[in-house]
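Input set for joint prediction.
Command: fold jointly, output tokens.
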Amino acid sequence: MASVTHSPVGTVARVREHHRAYGATSVLRGVDLDIEAGEFVALLGRSGSGKSTLLRSLAGLDPAPASEVEVEGRTSVAFQEPRLLPWKPVQENVALALLNTSRRDERDRRATTVLDEVGLSEKSDAWPLSLSGGQAQRVSLARALVSEPDLLLLDEPFSALDALTRIEMHRLVLQLWARHQPAVLLVTHDADEALMLADRVLVLDDGLLAHEWQVPVPRHARTPTHPHLSEVREQVLAALGVQSLDQKAAGAA
Amino acid sequence: MSALAPPQPAAVPAEPGAGRTRPPTTVTRSRGVRLRWLRRWVSPAVILVVWQLLSSAGVIPEQKIAAPLQILATARDLVADGTLGAATLVSVQRVALGFAVGAAIGVTLAVVAGLSRIGEDAVDPPMQMLRTLPHFGLIPLFIVWMGLGETPKIALVAMGVAFPLYLNTFSGIRSIDRKFLEAATTLHLTRWQRIRHVVVPGAVPQALVGLRQSLGVAWLSLIVAETVSASSGLGYMINHAREFLQTDVIVVGLAVYSILGLVTDAIVRTLERKALSWRP
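tokens >
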């Protein structure tokens, strides 16, 4: 892949003692997080735990003091809803991320290439509202990747998709990650998804990053029955406050 | 009569190829639709025929309203001697000029108010206050300020056009989904790129609603302005005819007004179809 020119080195995002509150409600209470270049990090948390808030700070959508949130290089975001501009055809939506590239033919060429990577070349002239949910989300991924970001922020991008499409999307994301080598922060509430995709899994609880697991298993070996993974899975679920069946039985007795 | 009646075939023929390729339900339905369409022409035709008969019998006096056939003949004469064409041209020019001025003002103000809070606070209050003013009520003031020439007519049209365009374009800009604006931020668009690729196209659907409304008001304003005073144009033709009780000329003038309204509406519809082709 010729477009990959940067080699991932160093830290792309540094979060220190990050606080955020909505009115009187404190959402983030001193979060510390480093994301290394090329690393795939999954951020888990229950609804309202502040995981999307942290992503918004990193994306620059909510203003955060530079002393608390520092991002090196370019970020891009894929949201839960694809947020494609409905009045622009697919290809133009993707090329929109390249408007700081002055040459139009260059923009078109790169948009075409990345649409091909997500398998949607034949839809490049289609209107976004004519796409299926999975197709629209793939365009959204293409738009996020075409600018070769150093940090790709994924805000529950697969949660609205059906189970089969979600599996396809997981595979696609891993392919794209290997090819473009951005650091990825995936916000999700799905422990299995996190364990299939990430190098490192974090759980945000009560405004703090409370738990962290490394996942040293190669991705091709990550099956639901993998002994190490199922062990981590139980720990992650416990950290998220999901009781195991044994605990439930014990509680009932 | 034949010129006023719709093209009515002597017998309703079967649709070409209907019996061979189409399933019978479709044939029945499409014939039903066509019959319905024809049926809807029956009552207008009956009204015209009755009107003509009553006029011919002398029940409806010509000073009140002329007979349909006579109106038709007068229309032909007015077209032939160039009167109607010249009058229509004058009126169309007034509407076009007034619309251009009003649209420029309305859209500019909407953009100023839509893109910044300071702009909104400066522009919106006076616009909201003036909006409640019935703009036809301004005619006496316009005459005092501008006399009886072309200017007050164009000003009245412009005034009528500016408000619906302002209100709709402004609300179109303001009601753009915040999610798209956030997406623009994450794509690192500059302020100008954001306006060009997100704000303007996002406001177009609502602005087009304003365009449709404003063109309706434009014709109405012109008719009122020309009726109050005019020395040329369709309104002049109608007023002149009134003095000589030429009801046929009056009806021809009115018919041209409605045709012009229909034509502009058709133009806007085409524009909408083109500009909003992204909608499913």
